[in-house]
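Technical annex B. To support the medicinal chemistry partners, we prepared a structural model of the target in complex with magnesium ion, based solely on the information shown next.
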Amino acid sequence: MSSKHFQAAHESIYSTGTRLLQYLEEIRQRRFSEGDSAKGLQSVEDDINKALHALKEQKYQVAVIAAMKAGKSTFLNAVIGADVLASETAACTVCRTDVRHIEAGQVPKLLEYQEGQRRPVVIAEGDAGEIQQKFLVRTREIQEKHNPDNTTRFEIEYPIEAIRDLSSLSGFTLVDTPGPNEWESANFNTVALKQTALEALRTCNAILFVLNYASYKDNAVSDLFKDVVENRQEI
Ligand SMILES: Nc1nc2c(ncn2[C@@H]2O[C@H](COP(=O)(O)OP(=O)(O)OP(=O)(O)O)[C@@H](O)[C@H]2O)c(=O)[nH]1
Ligand SMILES: [Mg+2]
């Protein structure tokens, strides 16, 4: 199904639900005028309202999973339509990063969540170039100083180009993950990287598995694919 068909189906289901609520109201008024309390209609109305709420508000998380340096962050930047996620030739992503869609006109932000802190730290605001630059600086600091502030994840709020005209997808969050396999730097805790990727793999609603054509036969890729199969019974 193309995104346009998906959007049209979404709108059609939503307007059908809204019309059903109107019919229910008419039926209720008629029953009232006949002296009936029309109590039985309440559960139907509740079900329709619940479904309409889910259509509008439900959040879906789509995780991009791949071995290290396969191009996850680059791929997500292309979907977002701006270079905001840190990406470089060396292994880069250190924490899970959730990219949330905001309406055009709202201020883009890069937020950092740290263990034990309820509120996130605002790392950058506004311009995409500045967000990526500060993201890269912060990523290197976390790598070199062994995660000094116990950063648990980042969040980017940005108008995602690919879903800008598709209100049906506005509840989608794109999740960038670290490549979980072995890293040249002996300093970094690769166990934590693997846990982060596995956690996203288990909990997100959908997974995009990215393969780098130059290294798709590597053991790291087949190990990761085994993890996908073991953790997602539906595959
Ligand atoms: N030739 C080529 N290079 C790519 C492509 N996609 C990404 N790259 C390059 O590959 C390198 C790694 O890309 P990233 O997007 O950082 O990879 P990643 O999977 O996010 O890496 P980690 O977060 O470190 O696991 C960067 O230098 C990118 O410019 C592609 O489609 N073709
Ligand atoms: Mg990355």
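Notes passed to the chemistry partners:
Residues 66, 68-74, 87-89, 91-93, 178-179 surround guanosine-5'-triphosphate (ligand 1) (CB under 6 Å).
The chain has six helices and seven strands.
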